[in-house]
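Subject: Protein record for review, amino acid sequence with backbone structure tokens
Category: Structural biology, sequence-to-fold work with a learned token vocabulary.
Format: Residues in single-letter code; tokens as whole numbers, each standing for a residue.
Body of memo: The sequence and its backbone structure tokens, given next.
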Amino acid sequence: MTTRHTVAPKGQGGRGAYRTIGEAIRAASPGDLVVIAPGTWTENLVLDRAVVLTAEHGRGSVVIAAPPGEAPAVTVDGPDCALHNITVWGSDAGLPAVSVSPCAGLVLEECSVEGGRVQVKGPEDEEGGTTAVVLRRCRLEGARLAGLHLAGGVRARLEDTAVTGVDGTGVVLSGTASLDAVRLRLERTTGSGMRLRGRSRLRLTDSVLAGSGRAGLLLEDSTEAMAGESRIETPGAAGVHLTGSARAELTDCRIRGAAASGLVVQETARLSASGCSVADAGANGLLVTGSAEAELADCRIDRSTFSAVHLAGTAVGRLADCRVRGGSEHGVHATGEARIELTDCGITDVAMTGVSVLERAVATLTGCRVAGTAAGIGIGSPAGSTVTDTTVTGTKEIGVQVAKGAAVSLAGIRISGAGAAGLVVDEGAEAAVADGRIEDCAGSGAVVWTGARPEVSGLHIDRPGKNGVFLAEGAGGTFTSLDVTRAGFPALHVAKGADPVFRHCRIRDCAEALGTDEGAEPVLEDCTADGTPLTFGTPAAAPANGRPGAAPSSPSAAQAAGDSEEPEEENLEDLLGELHELVGLDRVKQDVGSLVKLMQTVRRREEAGLPAPPLSRHLVFAGNPGTGKTTVARLYGRLLKALGLLRRGHLIEVDRTALVGEYVGHTGPKTTAAFNRALGGVLFIDEAYSLAPAFAGNDFGTEAVATLVKLMEDHRDDVVVIAAGYPGDMHRFIGSNPGLASRFGRTLLFEDYEPGELVSIVEFQAGQHRYELTPTARTELFSLFEAMPRGEGFGNGRSARQIFQEMTERQAQRVAELTAPTADQLISLEAHDLPHPAAR
């Protein structure tokens, strides 16, 4: 039978009440209940028997405080002890406030522990029993070193518990400790959120680890963790970090805003993740090194600062049905002797190469999609990669590049809309290509450099901007059942000393079938051009434009790879009209107009033989994201071209990642290469302030700035540099190097758009895509922009374009439910197509 013992101050609690909690515990028998009156009780309690301590008037009414200089406040030496609705204060944040001894047991329910940790020790010998601890609806706050430390043979469970404000690690598991945490809320730790050492085990469910100073979840040694439906937010280092031989299984977890990589797997660790997402990582989304392995299924990696997936050493990565979207470097980057397997994966909108394979790494791609990247797939390893049934679309540069000495097998690949060549096989590379398509590339369909001899069969090349196949001097290879249609240059170009073999090839509707340089040695077997047999040394088939004698001259190697030709001449007045048609930006338009007038005068003085006044054409564009800086920079280059002050007027857009290297000696060449691409035009440096961080130390950005200053002097008449970024940060950038202030003499301020201007941007987008806003939708849209917070997430024109896209998607869903929509219904954007403000 349970006996109730009352603890109350003198004069309260009635006859038989104890004056201290310790007295009541000593008088209690196992299973008894100790009820404590409200107040602060300064005691060191020892629970050496199965008793339950509870607050008479509920949570927060009773405080057990350790005497000054003494700790802990509560020591548990017996099994089946419990505290309900009690607050425990430690005397020193770096010491235990609650200590549980080996083989003891404790339940904390609706309790708070402040100013000290909960420390639980289990037997070191696995056969010595266990220590059992349960925390339900508790709060641990203000400890130092650790909020909760489980060591040795401990079995613990946390339910609906918060660990917060720890100057150190939130939860530490060591030895053979085991923790099952459900709905844990862990936030604001200076160290890692949770740290596992030894052979400890963790099961984490429906929990949040937020704002840790280091890793969100750190696994070392031979530890294991299973995490499901949990979030790791803004850790100060990696989101999840595995080292040693640790194992982790993540299911439906979200990792966002890691200061370093989202997922890190090192040494011999193993990671398995399913249905997870990693977003806005400060380094890689997934980093696998050493001989570690990572297996991801149905996962997303968005907006990584470095490569979304990076493998090094002898690491192995297997990704199935995963998506990589956005990012400042590569989508997938494999180096060393790493192996990466991608199955049914999508990679879109990364700033560099979709899949990059270097050194002796091996990649296997099956059924993948790469779109909107700078380059599609880059194979630089001789170890032999395989790409099967994969699509590469809309790349800014080359679709697939097989670098010097590399080896790859391509089967069923489709390359579409490349901004340069579709496929490039570099010097000495080995490539086998079977049953693929290359279409709508700005450069040649396939380029084969000196010494390369690819084996190509069943490849169809349609509408290349230049040659269907371009073979450089001394190139060769075998091309079987090759189809080339609608090429803008000769379908096949064979340079001096090249000796390719073409078998059963078909050429149709091309400007010319075959172009050869002196000394070319192509072999043609059963080949036709528009149905006519094609042989080397006989006239080529009539070109599609009907002018047999007007075949274009053979392109240079650079042209074959897709380098831009000289831009067309443009009229200055038309360009100024285009500038003034931009929404808003009145101050910027005025400044640019003044610059144009000034430069017209300079040009006229030069033409009259008069000395030109000192003039710096380099500019600083200061403004928030989405205010039109890139658009105006592109127009500025074209205006200078029309004025005759630039040869080409093209725009090369870069940021820190395109200029700054990762190693000593890497930055100078990288910056120079980017600068050289802009010669004759405009080099636009976005977020230029990142080259001069507030606490630079040994940052390579300072080297990039110094290199830029020298190059701007060496090529002062052949390039314009525009440095862009937030207004406040650009002052720091200009002040980071004495040479910058003298070269950037003028700053153009791009102000945020007003609500009415944002509405005009949406209407412009609508007009371009054959949509119309109803008057009510226009009014509601104005109100939406007026109420929209102007914080860090506000994108100005980008936000307007995003809202237009959302409106079209919602309109499509609405119209799809109509049986027979009218033409007006198909083009009308109505008020209920607007996104709800809460969704923004």
Notes: The chain has a mean pLDDT of 88. The radius of gyration is 34 Å. The chain has 14 helices and 73 strands.
